[in-house]
Amino acid sequence: MSTTLIRGAWVLAPEPIRDGAVVIVGDRIAAVGTYTDLAAEYPGAAQHGSAHDIVGPGFVNTHGHFSEGLITGIGSDFTLWEWIHTLIRPVDPHLDRRKAYLGTMVAGIQMLRSGVTTANDMFVCTPTGTPVSPGVVDALDELGLRGVVSFGAGDVGGAPIAAQFDEHEALREAATASRLCTFRLGIGALGGQTDEMFARSVDYAVGGGHGVHIHVQEIREEVTATFARTGRTVVAHCAHEGLFAAPTLAAHCVWVDRNDRRILAEHRVGVAHNPVSNMILASGVAPVAEMRELGIDVGIGVDGPASNDSQDYLQALKTAALLARVHHRQATAMSAYEAWEMGTIGGARALRMDDEIGSLEVDKKADVLVLDGRGPTLANVHDPYQAVVFVAGSREVSEVWVDGIPSVLGGDVVRVDPGEIAELSRPAAAELVTRAGLGHLSALVEA
User: What's the pTM?
Assistant: First the structure.
């Protein structure tokens, strides 16, 4: 197995190390310590990084939708329900495995360039009988990006339940065959499933030992509609029906009250906070501080390319801290360290993957981020956490290692040609919006 030593002026291990280094052997972290000690201990190691860089664990993106990879920057003037009906539902029936692959490629390149090493995704499409979502796994494996993949199922629109579970199974099989991907059961939203399908979803997840990825209480109308139908909030109904017996990641959780938060904490439900998309869609501000005070594991997500619309994780990281400060009107509402923690080990805990990823510790997976300190942006690092959250941009991401293998070197992806992917995506995106009848919203389609 190859041995690699990555040096940094700061190594953000659980305890930050000045002039430190990380040693990778195979797909694991073999050592973390000072550069002087590790260079002497591993004299034959290939060396990366520099005496000026910041080295940390890769970011864990806890929520996104690669299904939106070809419709970035369109329909962003709607609130959530308007956006779903105007943009997402018309697109869903026209996605296929090829478009899933290309959309994941386009969005995944952006994630890697901004330091993401793990992406928790929910692919939303209309099952056609031919599996669509395995295209996500195809792309993630090719890119070298770790994935937690799910299909956002829902039958309220009339899609046959059997077809939904066929899609689950196809994605599960693809993830099982992948080196980098794991599977979760996806539930688009509680309101998108009939009682029959939701019961089957609970049985599938709990009985099959699968994790769950679900949207929860993103907007007030969702809470109202669910309460009118079930007599409970989404959180309370999911708990009552047994869903939280499976490891669950709940995306958004904007409109959760004290009882909802208590239930989430009791069942160890992880939460994905999506500050940018919540602002774009005017959904509200999630009570992140209140949830964290209860011990709820909260990570940060970029959300989908049609609701963020950027897939730049550093933007989401910075926005999380700034939104908390302006919402509470206190500069201490969220520190840079707290945001960084949510973006790394906090996200790993929310996904219950913290035994493998999220921090630079011996025997964990070698998912490593290097921020270039040789240029002017990070020339003077007074506090490394503030430098990462408030100062750095994606241009400072010089290297990204996933499973001990470089996915980004010299500031760009190394396993695919970004220009070629962009060129392949253009006709696919134009075809998609044309077939969805969205030409009036897109300049890609000639009038």
Answer: 0.97
